[in-house]
Design brief:
single chain; alpha+beta; 5-stranded mixed β-sheet; 283 residues
Length: 283
């Protein structure tokens, strides 16, 4: 299944994508896509719904983040071999973790805010994992049963805030709109091999990132199990699994950073494409 949430910001409703690519309304079937509705048993029931009997979502309706009530965002740094090389780092011996504020989440086509003092605003297309059932100190072979699905994500990063303003990565990663997710949450049964998915990003029509999840240092099951050693993962939690080479900081000649008015697009094969304009932060 490809699950969506649609409607105005803060008033999104649950839906899904039908076989023809149309948007269907699940409001009368499930309260929302989040929490217990992401459990494998709940998703199995949802998969039995007569999709073509569901109401259509009106054309032009905004798509919001496909998951509601995300409790935490756990990120893995330097998790692609080629990205580690481009920033002059060694691939880490074990996953490098940091957190991103949940207030940074936005929809797949929303504007991304540029703060007045944001001088080094960068992009990072990523494969996102949504947890479906509680995971605490699980083994790698158990990880798949704890995953509700996957989505396209972009770990927007203000590099000066991240590396020049003291403290840890979280400061440069957590501004409002710095975590666009979607357009869909795709259940694992629709993905033949999550560790062989092309992913890309382009700025103003120029391709900047063009990688594959096969280049990850730590794969999906390793990531979920590893994180669960240090914190309990709850249904709806989001894991960002790192980015391939081609970020603005690593461009040659460069670096290249984003400004208001720029167009930023990114996608992961099978998980959908995001399309954003960089906008001045509202006062």
């Amino acid at each position: 299944m490809k699950l969506i949430r649609f409607g105005e910001h803060g008033a999104e409703r649950p839906g899904l994508i039908d076989a023809a690519g149309g948007l269907r309304d699940l409001t009368d079937v499930v309260a929302d896509h989040g929490g217990s509705s992401l459990h494998p048993d709940a998703l199995a029931i949802l998969a039995e719904v007569d999709v073509m009997a569901l109401p259509k979502v009106p054309a032009g309706t905004r798509l919001g983040p496909p998951v509601s009530g995300i409790g935490k965002i756990v990120c893995i740094g330097l998790n692609y071999h080629d990205h580690a090389r481009e920033v002059g780092k060694e691939a880490p011996a074990e996953p490098m973790l940091f957190l991103k504020a949940t207030t940074s989440i936005c929809g797949p086509f929303d504007g991304i805010e540029v703060a007045p003092d944001a001088a080094k605003l960068d992009w990072e297309v990523e494969l996102g994992i949504i947890i479906g059932q509680r995971a605490k100190a699980i083994a790698e072979q158990e990880a798949p049963e704890h995953i509700a699905g996957f989505l396209t994500a972009n770990d927007i990063s203000e590099r000066a805030w991240q590396g020049e303003r003291a403290g840890q990565f979280t400061k440069g990663k957590s501004h409002d709109t710095f975590c666009p997710i979607g357009p869909w949450l795709v259940t694992p049964d629709e993905i033949a091999d999550v560790m062989n998915l092309p992913l890309w990003a382009e700025v103003n029509g120029t391709t900047m990132q063009n990688g594959t999840t096969a280049d990850m240092v730590f794969d999906v099951t390793t990531a979920v199990a590893y994180i669960s050693e240090f914190m309990t993962l709850e249904p709806g939690d989001l894991i960002l699994t790192g980015t391939p080479a081609g970020v603005g900081k690593g461009q040659t000649p460069g670096p290249v950073y984003l400004s208001a008015g720029d167009r930023l697009r990114c996608g992961v094969e099978g998980l959908g494409v995001q399309d954003h304009r960089m906008i001045a932060r509202p006062t």
